[in-house]
Amino acid sequence: MEYYSLEGKAPKVGFREAALRGIAPDRGLYFPERIPAFPKRFWSEMHHRPFLEIALELMLPFTGDSLPGPQLRTILEKTLAFDTPLVWLGDKVGVLELFHGPTLAFKDVGATFMAGCLGYFSQAANTRTTVLVATSGDTGGAVARGFLGVPGVDVVILYPKGMVSDIQERQLTTLGENIRAFRVEGTFDDCQAMVKKAFLDPEMNESLTLTSANSINVARWLPQMLYYVRAFQQAGPGTPELVFAVPSGNFGNLCAGMLACKMGMPAAHFVACTNQNDTVPRYMASRTYAPNPAVATLSNAMDVADPSNFSRVLQLFQNRSEVLARYLSAYAFSDDQTLEGIRELHERFGYVADPHGAVGYLGLKRYLEASGGGRGVFLETAHAIKFRETVEACLHLELELPPGLRELMPRKKVFTSIAGYAQLKEALLAK
Ligand SMILES: N[C@@H](CCOP(=O)(O)O)C(=O)O
Description:
alpha/beta; Rossmann fold; threonine synthase activity; Threonine synthase
């Protein structure tokens, strides 16, 4: 499989090079040159098969010659080591829980897969790679954990000051070793712009081998399709096609689900659910892509004004927004509505959701009402404990701290404060 740049001005590359580069030299996102289609039989017969075998079949066309089969299997075994259960809250509403990984967020899936790939590529070539990552909350912790101690890899995390939760900040600033954190005066979009700038900076590229661990990287993005397929498998044979409601920030997650659908996975519809950073819902209503400055919200991991992966979503539909609109609806919700969503889930189903999951639930509910019925699943992208203050105050209860987090609490947060790209560059080039 080869990958081309969505900007169209860079040569095609294989999976290995796309993963090592992060983005193409023309700043475009890499996109697979063909989407492998799996026949109806593959989907109808998967319900009794071990999921690892299914995952291998699905990922193999994408990794191609870059990873030997046994290596891909080992990486997938680690990636799938934690469950992503589909829990039905009622007849019509289910929740796909993606927070059972080591950092309690869906990012653990992609970060584990990518860390496995990069560890293998660096070892095989005996090189040192610097992974740059911008985070609005959850990616940073998952990448820090996924790459901790991986030989040949240094991780540099950029996060916006005051726009991530206390637990999220602990997850990305307290591990040490090969992980460094930079606290940026700015928004997630500023952090992401710095990452992209670094890739085009000749001095940086002369001294460092850079890549990105955001979902702009195919090795982070592609494996995220697996939990949609796992949800389909768990729903069981004969289940009517599901609506998937996806809390969305950088849109890698939603795009991975829609990719699975393009590969043949039956799905009724997708719903992109955002907070007030509503560029995509406004785009879907007006067909004008016009990001506003990012605003801080309770669902901070989605505080993204200019979602990188939306270009991939459009590409899946040959950039025909009228076709995309048949498969995707998009809604935005305020913080007050988010709190209402958390309360409603608790009152109706006894379910404790985090603010991102609550936004997903609200989107699902609105879509099912508007379309006159159906059955759907919202993605619970992070554990409620990561947003402890918000959830505890909203529901008047106390959440228990999981053991993995307990050990982070007494540790000191270590980070470097920076205001812009020049300081980042100076710090990374300092000997
Ligand atoms: N929601 C993210 C923002 C970056 O998204 P990614 O999936 O592209 O890494 C976060 O939590 O940092």
